[in-house]
## 1
Amino acid sequence: MVNILLVEDSKFFGTLVQRELKIKLGFRVKWVKTYAHAKRLLEHGNPDYFVSLLDLVLPDAPNGEIVDLMFAHKIPSIVFTGEVNNDIRDHILKKNIIDYVLKRGNQDIKYITSLIYRLYLNRSTKILVVDDSNASRHHVLNLLKLYQYDLVEAVDGEDALRVLNEHQDIRMVITDYMMPNMDGFELTKKIRNSHSKDELAIIGVSASEDNILAARFIKNGANDFINKPFFAEEFFCRVTQNIEMIEHIARIHKTEEELGQAKEQAVQANKLKSEFLSNMSHEIRTPMNAIIGLSHLALKTELTEKQLDYLGKIKFSADSLLGIINDILDFSKIEAGKMDMESIEMDLNNVLEDVSNQVCLKAAEKGLEMIFAISSDVPVSLVGDPLRLRQILINLLTNAVKFTDKGEIVVNVELDATKETGADEVMLNISVKDSGIGLSEKQMALLFQSFTQADGSTTRKYGGTGLGLTICKRLVNMMGGEISVTSKPDEGSVFSFTARFSRQASDKEDLLVPPAYLRGLRVMIVDDSATSRRFLSESLSFFSFDVTKVASGEEALVEIEKDTAVNPYDLVLMDWKMTGIDGIEASKQIKNHSRLSVIPAIIMLTAYGHEDIMQQAEDAGIDAFLIKPVIQSTLFEAILELFGKKVGNKAALQQDIEAGILEKIAGANILLVEDNEINQQVAMEILNNEGLNVTLANNGREAVDILSGSGTDTEFDAVLMDLQMPEMDGYEAARTIRKNSRFSDLPIIAMTAHALVGEREKCLDAGMNEHLTKPIDPPLLFSTLAEWVTPKEREASCAPQPDNNEVNDVNLPETLPGIDVKTGLQRLSGNEVLFEKILIQFRNEFSNAGSEMQGYINSGDIESGRRLAHSIKGVSGNVGAMELCKAAGDVEYGFNHCDQKNFIELIENFQKALTLVLDSIESIDHSNNEDEAVSGTSADIETEVVASILIALNNNMQNSEVIEDGLMDDLKKYLGASSCCDELNNLEQHAYNFDYESALNSLDHIAGSLGITIEMESKNENRN
């Protein structure tokens, strides 16, 4: 604790000083008010006072005797007084006090506080005094000692350099000029060779009157220069100034160092964020690949209309989810300004229909009506980025639904005539209007900022990240437009944005022109929403129909009876939910009206697509059913179909487009490089089903071997390359392939679950031609292949068809401990044979995984342990072993973070889950083997056929030839369910590994167990 002695008779001034020193510095202050008290205090015990603060005029010592008292006890002193007397001041300063301060107010008290703090800091500030004169050196040392500095001394330049080398914490050197052997100039030069002005100050000293000395000292590296003899007050100020400059620079350097560390931490955090996004991208996209790929395959099968509708919406929702995932995971693209905008042909009606499918269900659940109104002069065949436009609309509509509890939401699309556009361009003005809670001026000012919401309270009702509108704003700007909002609390909001698009080269707008026989069709609109009536009326009038609007079912019944014979209604668009008579009751009365000369067709419109409503509508005789919001093109198609002219549906059109692409690449030989089994299955089925020939490589090393000729002689047309694989990843594989001039033009297309900033560039840098993100989008995959694959005559592959009998032969239990059978089968499209095969493979490959992981932990092989855990996590998740999947994920996390202290518990949990799964698999395999043992007796086997196969296999292996295609499969067909199936598996494994000696031994055992004799005249000779 620092002790301060305060001698002051003024209660007011003493209190201020004592409080300032205690509060600001935390020093302990002993306050006495008289000379006598101070004298008794020092005589009866002399505590270590750091400094004394002295009033010069005391009642019992009016002539400054208190200063002498402190000097006698060697206590450094600061004098303060209310008298302005220069003679007294000069006299007091000669007594080697620290300073003489006038009492004028708080400012002087603050000066005293800062002076004492400076003195306190001086105790840890080391100064070297260099002078060959003992008297001069000691004079300087005594002055500096008064100011509490930590002091060292040297008698000449050589001695000074030695002391500097011993004391690395010296912050100032005060050196005389005239010294033997090495003067002050030379010493300053040598010091500056190893110490900069920023870390060590040098003050030159000389008794000479030469005015050039100061300049020479400064030029040689000194910070300052002082002439002897010293005036103590000036000397202290000059020393303090230079010391404080050094300290200030040191603080700057420390701040710079801290900023550098903070920057490094920020860079590291950004790297970790990128790694996290990369991992999340891979983890999310892998199951998305299965969802989208298998949905695509399912849509190509025979389906009912309802199944087709459901699967189509599943695929669309998965595509939309993928788009959202892309934007969330790639927010770094927006931050880096690297988000790309596509410029492709798009149909505005299709975009709005997709948006409707995405949002209308949520709106219907809240009882909201959603209306899409497109002005008749808006072209729908455009060129732009449909995914980004969908994303903007979905975000705005989702917000509108979230913040609206009743009423309607209207999307309005118009041409913006206020913006200049080229002849082939259009500027659309799109608005989303709701009747929700609205926004205040203050809340609107916070919109469109990252992670900011209108309601920022922690108890906010509506949730969300506040990121969506920021992305919308950036996307709108990239589309050449602007976004804005108008709103009032409790009166709803209108979000409006403009976007620039190009017109398509070919004129497709005449698709909504009805045939001549439908022009003038008389139509009645029955809807209690004025906005909906207006939009429907504009759309139907655009079709050249004769339109009447009414607001209720009662008005419709009155209107329908007018001019029944002269000018009957041909069509009624009937809303379902209205006040009074609802749409179904009004439709029943119209359909059963006895006085109508013509019963009109009725299309029911509703925002609620419940099946019971649809059934009621069908029972009432209603002819068609449309879900709101009704898109203009959908309404047009429904009317044409209702009146006998079906329009070509979009799915068929897309199939026609795909057919042209597929015709170009049919029969192409594709090398698929992929290590994930589900991804392999999805990709191979998609490609095989469209007539492409696929060769599989499980990693980059296999791909290189296959292309180099060690695996096959096939001439490949393209390589689909995964990036994350064991042994050799996709980047290294691509670089290795490109080193061979034979493959300089071979298209290599990356297929990866990583889609972050720079990923495509990394692929191109590695020598790849294109970059596709998983999940696989089949149309994009085929169009990309068509872009790179050279058309030529090829023989298309025949997609393998599942053997229904084989599937039915598998009897899996409905439940298995540790395995969700239903989930596992769903992920494999219900293929029980494949499911059982994967389970058996899992058991064979990972039965010793627990001990293997423990071995990796003991040996410190982190990478191998992490890869094994990752593999088990992926496979177990795919087969429905969710507890094992989680346990493996925990172990993988432990390896990734080198968290070995928790490995014992992690491995125990993993081993427990693994054992449960392995026992379940064993029960399946054991049960099936028992069935095979009963049914697969030798009497059931066609001995002659089996013998011929065994002989052919024997001849191939005896002569070291490659086994003929189909032989092994034929043998498995006859013996796969027999008692020798285990030996058959051994035979197959040895043969495919070209271990013919072991394979021939297995063949001998099989033949012997079946009682079949094979002529093996050259066997022993060949084996030797």
## 2
Amino acid sequence: MEFLRRLYRGKSIEPSISQRHQQMDVESTELHTIWQELSQLLSDRRDMLRCVDLCKRALVILPKESNEALWAALQNELGNSLAQNPLGNRATNLEQAIHHYQLALEVRTREAFPVDWAATQNNLAVAYSVRIAGSGSDNLEQAIHHYQLALKVKTREAFPVDWAMTQNNLANAYRNRITGSRSDNLEQAIPHSHLALAVYTREADPERWATTQNNLAVAYRNRIAGSRSDNLEQAIHHSQLALEVRTREAFPVDWAGTQNNLANAYSDRIAGSRSDNLEQAIHHTQLALEVYTREADPERWATTQNNLANAYKDRIVGSPSDNLEQAIHHYQLALEVKTREAFPIEHRGTLKNFVSLYFGQKHWEKAHQVGLDAIMVGADILDVASSDAGRSDAIAQTGELYIWVAYSALRLGQYGDALAWLEAGKARLLAEALSLGDANLVLLNNEDRQLLQSLRDQVQDLEYEFRLPPSHPIRRGDHTISADLREARATLRDLTARLQVQYPGFLPEGLPLADLLAQIPADGALVAPLFTSQGSAVFVVPAGVGAITADHIVWMDDFRLDDLNGLTREKEGKPGWLRYYIDYLIVVLDKTKSKAEKHAAFKPLLDGIENVTRRLWEPFVGLIHAKLQALGINRVLLMPQGDTSFVPIHAAWHEEGGQRRYFMDDYAVRYTQSMFALDNAKRQSNQGKGALVVGVSQYGSKGDLPNTRAEAQSIATLFGVEPLLDAAASVAAVKHGAPSKAYVHLSCHGGFGWGGDVFTSALSLANEEPLPLPEIMAKLDLKAGPLVVLSACETGIVDFNNVPNEFLGLPAGFMQAGARAVISSLWSVDDRSTALLMERMYKHILNKDNPMKPADALREAQFWLRDATAREIGDYYQAYLLPRMSQSEAGQAFVEILKRAKPDDKPYSHPFYWAAFTYTGD
């Protein structure tokens, strides 16, 4: 009962029958007897099982129509009693509680009973916030919704304590929220906690005041928006305030929890001396261990041992060897409790810390061996993870291990193993990315799909509970949760193993080395970079080799992961590609900005592309170039890693003989997410015939694209088919027309899911109807194996902030749907130059005298667009656009070209116009 008192303390669940006792029409002796006993029980919330029984008996005697208000009050109280009932199945009790609250609301409307309506809305919110059944994400959304409804009546002026309680509950819900941006959710949580503190003062309610201060400290430590340094200072400040009330004598467990929070904040702290901060972290962790003993609280003890090990790993004061020994010692203590069987997630986390320690010390053999152990544990977790959040978190923690293991193997001279582990990590990451949203379930028949989903649903509730903070009211002890998980995981693990055998594309483990090498094009080489914090390397492997040797490795000891991130993001105040591009988008997507302001934002974007593609050459691409030159190879299969997935490596350049020379001038470049993905693409059917050509030029809010209609008409003419234009280009029409085609060309608006959810990436078709990524993966039939050309903006961008989403984007989605290859764009492209590029590419593909493979045709079209003069482009417009556009549209397009260029100038020479498009797949 103690945890229930903690959960509903302060009227989180609000009694109601006692307030209505005068309304009771005692028409029977039995009802009067029930009421007397129930009133006594509810006065101190004793014996919830008896309360449940009494409420049910009263509801049998009292029909709804005889006294609706009292009937609703009994339904509400039955919900309260079930929610607080410590006996029976917790999940079932909460489902029944929710049901009875909903029945109460049939009578308790806002209009008729506003205060009671708000009370039941709050009760319903609390029940959803701790609900076990269903989706954890959906439950929290429901909780937030009902808390917000309660606040419509429970205002600060009328009900200050209830208002503060609900504000605090909302803060907790937003802090734990899964849906939406993590940053945005924390920004919601923080102000709700501050609002609660307007009522929860130290003088009036010190315990709730301290709890809210502690919650604020956690939120600020995790906060993404704002200054990281300032956020950590706030976290320390609020923890210290909490400790003014949370003393060891009065609240020992809460005191230890806040000491642990304070240690974490000091460990991350940016302000002040790094050395002093780590000493503070060690000090506060050791204080927490005075309460978190192995005997009394083994789970928290082990977690705190792990945190102490992290602090010693980074410690500056003292002997480095002694600190290293201390770190190893405390990690080992943590593992004594956090075993692989009982706590696989925490076990894998501690092993990962071990690998990080060894990797940082360049102890390659230990890093390699412990990394392999951690990967094996990670595989167990991934196989049974059921929710999107659980899978994303699991792979995010495992993904880096593959990189460390591969690089450690390289340093140990195990070159073939290194490439195999790099590929295994990519294949697994891609498979896990595609499994989000259950898109990979389309591989399974209905019976297997339903069975898998049913078992995942069973595990999901337990996984969600396990991820909750130890202080969360519904969270049971780790041992209890683990026991329930073991049985469920074993069943699901057996099923997953069977499905992997039955469906080879389901959660693959990557290709064996021999099969991997067989995927390298006969006249080319595989180029696969490997970036780490301790240095980097690139595999450059020509076709036909039987084993990987030192000759196939290009070492980049002085170019580390943070150097790459400096090129792609930002370093020491110097912007990388994303900074340039996002700054541009902020302006052009702002409807309050003038046309002149948007035009002015274009020049910095062009400068940014040139800057980044030039900076890619010397430390990275130039070394690959030298190796390829020595091998005499001019075709490249590029398997990017991390941030190299969203920069145009093919457009990296240097000066040669006073002229700019791009990487793609010397090499035909194809991309692949992994060698398994390439192998899978090759296995797709190539039986498709003809083409589906789509062009949408008419939009409302997004702005028209006049060149897309002409583009689609011209390309459709080359294929001898009728295009789907504007209103005819609906999502349903595309789904209907795509099967059996050899080519699918989609010219329209497109966009990446910048809101933090990659699954909102979509193409915008007729009437701005979206064709989003999940629908592409699960409902688009491309089994004929077409080439899909995404002649739209941002169709090649991946989620660069989240693993495994770094592999997930529209290209992967279309290949999941069956495409053999995808042409897509890395930024928001110009529709006029894109129309010319695409029409030129198809002419090369369909040239009867000299047909080109699509990848080569794209490259040749890019060369043509880059090098064409204004005069040549003008002539092309006359032949290409004028017959398919109005005179005014064609004339305006032609004028736009000529007014900024002399006849012999090359108006589309900048890589912005031609380098955005990449070819991914077979």
## 3
Amino acid sequence: MKNLKKVMALVIVLSMVVSMFTVMTASAADFEDVIGTPYEEAVLTLAPMGVIAGYEESGVISFKPDQVVTRAEMAAFIVRQLGLSAAKTVTEFTDVPQDHWGSGAINIANKKSIVVGYGDDTFHPDEQVSFEAAVKMLVCALGYGVDAEDNGGWPAGYIAYGDKLGLLDGVEELLADTTAGCTRGTVALLLYNALDINMQEVSYYNGQVLSKTILEDTMTSEMGYEKWEDVIVAATDTAAVSGSLQDKGYVAFEGYSEDVVAGEWDMNAYLGRPVTVYVKYNKKANEYTIISVVGTSYNSEVVTLDAADIYGMDDTDLVYYVDKASSSKTAEYTLADLAIDGGDLTMVYNNKAVDQADQDYELITAATNGTITLIDSADDGVFERVIIETYQNYQVVETDVEENMLYLESTVDETEVELDDSKETNRPKFSIVDCEGAALTLADLAEDDVLSIYSDVYPTSGKDYVKDADALKIVACNHTIEGAVTSIANKKVYIDGEAYETDGVLSVNSFAIEDEGIFFLDFNGDIAFSDTAAVLDNFEFVYDGIVEGRDITLYTLNSNGDQVEYKMATTVRVDGSSYNMSQAADRNALATALKINGSEGLTDEYIVSLKTNDAGKITRITKLDGTKERGYLTHSDKLIGSYSLNADTVVFTLPANEDFDEDNLKATKYTSLSNNTSYNFKVCDVDKNGIVTCMIVYTTDGKVDLESNIAVIQSVATTKVDDEIVLSLTMIQEGKTVTKTTKTDDIFFINDTYETMYGESAAIAYGAYPGQIIMYATDTAGAISSVDRVYPRPCLAEEYEDGYYLVDEFQTWDNTFRRNDYARLFLGTGFVVEKNTNTKVMTVDSAIEDTDASFVANYGSARIVVVDTNMASDELAVKTGSAADIKAGDFVVVRKYKGTVRDIVVYKNFDAVPAFYK
């Protein structure tokens, strides 16, 4: 680590009860399509009451707020909100039969004068309900239809009276056309606004209004619910005021003494906050259950500040930076006096009430991260509640599940801490969750995880931060950023141009420009730790692996060319996923991640960067799959394809087209590769300067690749390499002269065996001589390791006619000759019969006798080589040519690849087998 950190041990029991600070409800999870919309609060309140519901399609639950509501649906919503059940029944409307799903609700709504028909005994249940009609139905359901009629009637009077009642709060700005169909989102807002409007009862006599009475009843009470507005003072794992914890699943309010069941809601999230809740009374159990939570509300001001923005205290004024990056502009909020001095300040520190004797404003200013929430319940400008949520970051060094040990390191602590929840019977349990709030266990944690630990031990108390904590939550994060520090400005660190804040403990001054490595983030996305020694540079090629009982072994070749055998540590992380070797399921999953098929070995080979512990066992594996490429190596530019290389580039070489073992796998440098040679390769890692740090080169030992370029032999000599006599071939390839030696002395040969089997022509064609066209492959040293003779080509004696070596026009290059119009490789031979200098196209008659086959070739961009077979010369002349060298009557060999003419070899004074080679 760049910063010196101390090691601490943390004992954690595995029987943990999940406790989360964030609100998680079934409704929020069900209706993700309303989160962040104007309808969110309405939908999440009404859904648990059973007024509205969602849709499930292919396992996905949604509310569909933009879907238009029908008249039948609107009637059903209102009837439910009145606490009424509606079974299918006969109605007075001719278009609403008894078996219609909404007949019961429509019948009730009609009898209560909430809806009326169209005057022709029809209701049009499946017709879209307009906004005006929806408002009218609700106004009538609340008992104010008479008032609306007296104030203008349909539709203006209903809209005006609905606005007066508060039905339209938050709705008007959503509407462009009140006559259009009303959406589910808008209806939810209308229903929500109607919940707590006092209903009116109207008495009639002889059809005339006798009296109107505003009732205490609301739609909420009609459903059997009560609306409470109060402060949460205690929950299962927390206590804000009372000092005593609630039984599991219960919550306490400041102004109510009743027992309240939290239900599906995590009320820890609202500790110390004023909330609006809807509850239902259970007479048999004599307790209330929370049905819906609206959140912080009613006559209160709530302000949440980042702890990092706190400047300090000025008497009772909390001073904070408006813009910390500018370090200049500040503002302040007035806090109530400390309770220790007789004031009425309530402080909550990490979901636990701060005793009056421990209250100190320094608790606020000492928080370096997290949030400070201020609540002014009386709305008088003085904040009497302070909720502090702060944490300290640690990084996992090692886990030991069997001993329940978790070794951590921090930038500040050097204490060995023991946490054991069996020490006190009344202490709350603690939890471990991931960044999304999902529960974890000790076995899920792995080396380098960043743990944000919430403790109720105050930083001013002098006690160890997590020792004997009465309330504790751990948020684990394994997010990392790899790169280099490119800038430090505005109290932020820029990694490869992207800005990151630190966690408040780690200072930006800890970094320097060009620091390069791995940066570990906490759950807030802030840098908590860095390891600038973690740049990937210990590359190893994994060529085998086996599972043996409870062990997994990897066999690798490192960049020094040494073969190494590794075992796994107790906890292993592979590309961010953690595996515990003591768990069978984890071992199986790890074997799959490492491509190990039990004791059968690897299913595929790959490059890794490893991290090991002091015992030499693997704790972290970063797999480098890479991207397959093909390109030519140019030493002068130190390029292969479009990638730059240097002397430090690690190159692993292995055969491309045949099985390999550890004996023919090599680790080398790029300088061992042959210049001006095409290679198949895979780039595995590139540094910040664009230099390849590690790559795989697939040597061309084996079959010649279809993409290989042809070469025309210009001259042949013998030479000695490693005490072995081999051939040295000078050839023209890609318009350049190249010289290659053969890997062994048996790649080219002329012998009696082939002459006996195939005839004289084949015996000669298997040799090497000027004018022969070949494709070849090289090993990593650049020596020719395999050859395919393109022309003259070995053939059976009976196919050798009039001195011609026959090659069909289309070839798939698997040593078979057959016509295939879609072949990647087109290889044609014959005589030029026509040449058009305007179109750069020539027509070639096939060299195969007794056929009328011909083909055309565009020679405009082709590489041209001329072979002069004039026997009057002392030797064949092989040279680079041009389009001008192509004449009618010349014998040519044409190579196309994927439809494009790449090479043309022109034979002058053609004689298939020159006399001096016979």
